[in-house]
Amino acid sequence: MGHLDHATFGWLTPVLSYVMASIGAALGLRCTVRALGATGRSRRNWLVTAASAIGTGIWTMHFVAMLGFGVTGTEIRYNVPLTVLSLVVAVAVVGVGVFAVGYGRDRTRALVLGGLTTGLGVASMHYLGMAALRLHGQVRYDPLLVGLSVAIAVVAATAALWAGLNIKSPAAVAVASLVMGGAVSSMHYTGMMAVSVRVAPSAATLPGATAMQFIFPLAVGLGSYLFLTSAFVALSPTTGEREASASAQRPVEFAAR
Question: For the chain, how far is it from start to end, CA to CA, in angstroms?
Answer without folding.
Answer: 83
